[in-house]
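Renewal narrative, Specific Aim 1. Our central claim is that a sequence can be written position by position from structural information alone. The example that follows is taken directly from our test logs and has not been curated for this report. It begins with the structure tokens describing the chain, in the order in which they were read.
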């Protein structure tokens, strides 16, 4: 490693925002042909650091050195000129443009002064093949699911021929097969001499892919260690303490059924889905991407329609496609897309925490702002939301703290059934344990939790029962003792169609779901 040329160095970088020191004397370097992992809790400063390298922020002090020369990065074009490309955790794509148009946005190939669409689409197709995703370069981005959006982002970054590639949580929404493909791409890039800054909360990925690790804590670079460093030590460096139990599930005795789903069917998406969730219980919903888990959750919450079946809470049947009725019955949903569906990004922490209880806090047309502020402060303290104050815009919080706000608004509403869709995606190990403890508190007080997660160890560690979906159906149910990774995966693929048919069905489901959501948004029916 020592003979590799240095591509990038950061010295003594400091960045402050009103009331917050985001980075304080941070040092970091990247060498040619290495994967350097940037590790830290949510709010540790990782996002601020990479936004400086991409030109979104400018440092207050310190130096950025590229190829031995100090540089100033004032915007994305400066970063691209220096050979720096960034793949953000939150997608940076234009929904109404095609895949090819997004990949080459602002850099379209031209012929006789006009955009050469044939070449653009041909080049995009080659890049898409390189990242192993089957999607037409002429498809509109809004028609794609989250996993395919991530691969389009990677294809876009590869089109820049970057020498420094920054990847912010690139595996958060990918299946294990897609992760393997991504790792193969990263290893090829490393062999080609590209330096890669890799941000992940999945500690098992560090030793599998990384060379070195720089740990950030509270805006400071606390240590640089080899990627082979044991996970327990990485956790200690990251959070400043040891975490004895990664999945601290406490299992109270289950009470009566709170949520009952019977024969739920939506043509082409899910079929004859039936299950119960009891008071004090965490039921995990597992399955491959495209199995229909999120679609079922949205139908239960009333956000999406269904064709047959019923949803009941404490024995009372709910009307179909009625978010207000679901909320009134005590159902809450923490969606997988927290920014797009769970938050008002330009509103404050206080305003977001009070969204669900706004109606109940209103008397004679006036909102009890003082009471809402008091309740918001209590929940923010309980969840340990890192913020400058309740007036801070949610957009400026880290991903983990945004997730805490989404969960917090339902805690204020005292929901009886909380549906958690990918509750810890993009969240560090310390914050994960805090959310798991919160789940324990909810079930200990008699609430019911339905948890959807693509993180199989999380499902196994925190669920009292596991329901496994495959191609829109419940393929089986496992008790906590029966649930193993092998058992879950066997059920997850038990009714799978041939690969091509399954892929086409998945794409059709995603397109249908997107169209339904667009129609609902046009009607103003989004209730959460």
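The sequence written for that structure reads:
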């Amino acid at each position: 490693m020592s003979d590799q040329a240095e591509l990038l160095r950061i010295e003594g970088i400091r960045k402050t925002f009103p009331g917050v020191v985001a980075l304080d004397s941070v040092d970091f370097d990247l060498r040619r042909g290495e994967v350097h992992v940037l590790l830290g809790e949510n709010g540790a400063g990782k996002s601020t650091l990479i936004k400086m390298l991409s030109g979104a922020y400018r440092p207050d002090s310190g130096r950025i050195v590229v190829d031995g020369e100090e540089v100033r990065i004032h915007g994305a074009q400066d970063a691209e000129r220096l050979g720096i490309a960034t793949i953000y955790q939150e997608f940076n794509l234009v929904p109404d443009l095609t895949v090819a148009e997004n990949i080459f946005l602002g850099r379209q190939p031209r012929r006789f002064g006009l955009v050469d669409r044939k070449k653009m689409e041909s080049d995009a197709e080659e890049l898409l093949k390189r990242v192993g995703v089957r999607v037409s370069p002429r498809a509109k981005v809004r028609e794609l699911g989250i996993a395919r959006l991530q691969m389009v982002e990677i294809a876009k970054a590869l089109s820049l021929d970057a020498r420094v590639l920054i990847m912010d949580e690139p595996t958060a929404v990918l299946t294990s097969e897609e992760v393997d493909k991504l790792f193969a791409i990263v290893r090829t890039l490393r062999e080609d001499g590209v330096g890669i800054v890799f941000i992940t909360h999945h500690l098992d990925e560090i030793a599998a892919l990384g060379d070195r690790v720089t740990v950030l804590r509270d805006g400071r670079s606390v240590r640089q260690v080899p990627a082979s460093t044991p996970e327990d030590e990485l956790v200690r460096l990251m959070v400043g303490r040891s975490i004895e139990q990664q999945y601290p599930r406490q299992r109270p005795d289950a009470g009566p059924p709170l949520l009952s789903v019977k024969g739920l069917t939506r043509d082409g998406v899910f079929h004859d889905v039936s299950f119960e969730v009891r008071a004090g219980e965490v039921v995990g919903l597992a399955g491959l991407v495209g199995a229909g888990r999120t679609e079922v959750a949205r139908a239960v919450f009333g956000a999406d329609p269904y064709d047959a079946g019923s949803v009941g809470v404490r024995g009372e049947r709910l009307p179909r496609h009625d978010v207000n009725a679901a909320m009134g019955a005590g159902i809450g949903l923490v969606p997988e897309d927290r920014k797009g569906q769970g938050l008002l990004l330009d509103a404050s922490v206080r305003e977001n925490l009070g969204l669900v209880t706004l109606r109940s806090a209103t008397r004679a047309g006036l909102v009890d702002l003082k009471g809402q502020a008091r309740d918001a402060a209590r929940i923010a303290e309980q969840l340990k939301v890192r913020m400058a104050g309740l007036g801070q815009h949610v957009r400026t919080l880290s991903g983990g703290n945004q997730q805490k706000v989404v969960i917090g608004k339902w805690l204020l509403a005292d929901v009886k059934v909380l549906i958690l869709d990918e509750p810890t995606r993009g969240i560090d190990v310390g914050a994960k344990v805090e959310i798991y403890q919160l789940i324990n508190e909810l079930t200990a007080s008699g609430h019911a939790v339905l948890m959807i997660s693509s993180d199989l160890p999380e499902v196994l560690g925190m669920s009292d029962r596991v329901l496994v979906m495959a191609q829109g159906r419940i393929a089986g149910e496992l008790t906590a003792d029966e649930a193993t990774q092998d058992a879950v995966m066997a059920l997850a693929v038990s009714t799978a169609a041939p690969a091509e048919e399954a892929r086409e069905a998945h794409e059709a489901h995603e397109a249908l779901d997107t169209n339904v959501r667009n129609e609902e948004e046009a009607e103003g029916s989004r209730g959460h």
